[in-house]
Amino acid sequence: MQLDRELEGYLNHLAIERGLAANTLAAYRRDLDRYGQWCRSRGLLTAGDVSENAIADFAASLRDPLVGTPLATSSAARVLVAVRGFHRFALDEGLATTDPSLRIQPPAIPRRLPTALTVDQVGALLGAAGDDETPIGLRDRALVELLYGTGARISEAVDIDVDDADLVDRTLIVTGKGSRQRLLPLGDFAIAAVQAYLVRGRPALAGRGRGTPAVFVNARGARLSRQSAYGIVRAAARRAQLDVQISPHTLRHTYATHLLQGGADVRVVQELLGHASVTTTQIYTHVTADTLREVYATSHPRAGVPGR
Asked: What is the pLDDT of residues 40-86, one digit of tens each?
């Protein structure tokens, strides 16, 4: 069908010309498959057949419980971003004479402050991450120390190869979204945990496999998956008996928040996190401002309202 070929052409464009990461590309494919099915069910067989009203109807269907399980606002917004991108591509490539998505706006996503752990909570989590007696324990401690010590995304952490870590130079190379690489500094605690794992843990685990350059490997000697790494963090949180929801991304949020609370410039934090825009990083400044107001309100003798 023509629409399927057009959608596939856009996905190839994203992969080859824009160099999107595999995970991002997979999300685009899922969203556009959903859109393609919707269009076919209504007899819209090419990009040129789609009208503005049709896209508006599709957008409404994403949140309509009568149509199916309604998507969350953020998920619906992501789907519409993919659809708008496709129709811009179709116009540029001469597959359609107009862009029917031009005036369709994704739903506004409520601004939420990221969850950040306290220093004491981080200490408890790291203390429960793993032991120094087993290869698995050494690996788990190294992984959690690295996530908090660098702010790396979980996908970046499991993709690290042995040659990416320079423990003498105290640096780590990670590959982020869009295959962009960045150099991250390593602190003493992360270096100690990673070095202990590389010397006393990884050889035993890697020896069970067929050989992999990955730093973090599973019990069979293959590269650790994102799902397994997620489970390691959640298991550490349970052992630490922390009463908050924790994921690998929580450690990334906490890394950024603690840097800003310690006086780091937001542009430096942007570079460390690998954000394309400083606007993405600035959400963490709101967390810091809230903390400052709380400390002031509870510590300064003239912070309260007169008469209270």
From this structure: 999 999 999 999 999 999 999 998 887 778 898 889 999 999 999 99
**8 A C-beta contact, residue 171 and residue 160:** no
Q: Indicate the DSSP class of residue 303.
A: -
Strand-by-strand arrangement of the 165-166 sheet: 165-166, 171-175, 181-185
Three-state secondary-structure class, residue 137: helix
Active site residue 258: no
Joined together, the tokens standing for residue 70 give: 């309604």
Which residue in 63, 223, 239, 249 is the catalytic one? 249
239 in active site? no
> CB within 8 A of 284, min separation 6: which ones?
114, 253, 256, 257, 260, 266, 269
Instruction: Check residue 263 and give left, alpha or beta (phi > 0: left; psi -120 to 50: alpha).
Output: left
Active site residue 252: yes
> What is the C-alpha to C-alpha distance for residues 49 and 58, in angstroms, rounded to an integer?
14
Long-range own/partner contacts, residues 195-201 (CB < 8 A, 24 or more apart)? 195/167, 196/132, 196/138, 196/141, 196/142, 197/135, 197/138, 197/139, 197/141, 197/142, 198/142, 198/162, 200/135, 200/138, 201/134, 201/135, 201/136, 201/137, 201/138, 201/139, 201/142
- Is 255 annotated in the active site? no
- The residue count of the chain comes to 308
Residue 2's SS3 state is helix
Other beta carbons within 10 angstroms of residue 215's beta carbon come to 26
Torsion sign, CA atoms 173, 189, 221, 204:
positive
Catalytic residue chosen out of the listed positions 177, 182, 223, 234: 177
Residue in this structure with the two tokens 């602190």, named with its chain if needed: 187
* Global model pTM greater than 0.90: no
Give kind and range of the element (H or E) at residue 182.
strand 181-185
Summarize pLDDT for 209-264 with one digit per residue, the tens. Answer: 888 999 999 999 999 999 999 999 999 999 999 988 888 889 999 998 899 888 88
For residues 39 and 41, give the distance between their C-alpha atoms in angstroms, rounded to a whole number: 5
The structure tokens listed for 24 are 């991002």
